[in-house]
Amino acid sequence: MVEPEITPISRNDSFCFACNPGVPCFNECCRDLTQLLTPYDVLRLKTFLEMTSGQFLATYTSQHVGPESGLPIISLKPGNQQELTCPFVTPEGCRVYECRPSSCRTYPLMRGVARSRATGEMTEQFAVLKEPHCRGFEQTHRQTVQQWMDEQGAVDCNAINDKMMQIISLKNTQMPGTLDIKSRHLFFTALYDLDSFRSQIISNDLLAGLKFDHALINAALEKDDLALLEIGMVWIRRVLFEKK
What we know:
By secondary structure, the chain is α+β, with helices and mostly antiparallel strands. It has a domain at 166-241. Helices cover 40% and strands 17% of the residues. It is built from 9 helices and 9 strands. The chain has helices at residues 39-48, 53-60, 102-106, 145-151, 154-174, 181-191, 194-204, 214-221, 225-241, and strands spanning 5-9, 14-16, 61-65, 72-76, 89-90, 93-94, 109-115, 122-130, 142-144. A 3-stranded antiparallel beta sheet has the order 1-8-7. The chain has a two-stranded antiparallel ribbon with strand order 2-9. A hairpin with a 6-residue loop joins β7 and β8. α1 (39-48) packs across α2 and α8 crosses α9 (225-241). The longest helix has 21 residues, at 154-174. The termini are far apart.
């Protein structure tokens, strides 16, 4: 088995790559796949598919527990168990392309984020992932890393996903080791199962005693899922980690 090539690249460096139905390997990167989802990925996909978060999670995802962190990890269920294809891939391409997951937008780049303990500043590192099956690198279209990220709509996704990374970093600092079952359930509900979280805010007054912007709360309760995710992230920090 030929291993992929991973080459570090800076934001202003350029690379040749294109992906479209005319490339011979079209759709090959959508098989033999382990596709992890961020909370923002789930939000966008369930909205695009006009499903509740509970329906989407039950239909399209599986969950396991990170062996070191104890955090819930959400991944797409394969559409084909033998070939491990993405459930959204079709012969014509991705049927949820408009709201495809963040890692799909970034590919063939890999993006890593590190947070300084001293300053809290987030820094990015990029690498080009060249897999043996991929013929996209034979195309002549050239762009910088920054241009690719802008064209693919990855910048805004990364800004929201990085807030999740900050929560994980805080968790690892304040609560190293695995989360207990109750904390894991709260984490999953507030960040992934947003419709259930909204219902619990209303029925159980979950935000009582915590200072939140009233306009943000009103927007979240009136079906603004992005505002609700923002509240969920802050709520998890305060309830699970900052009190420790």
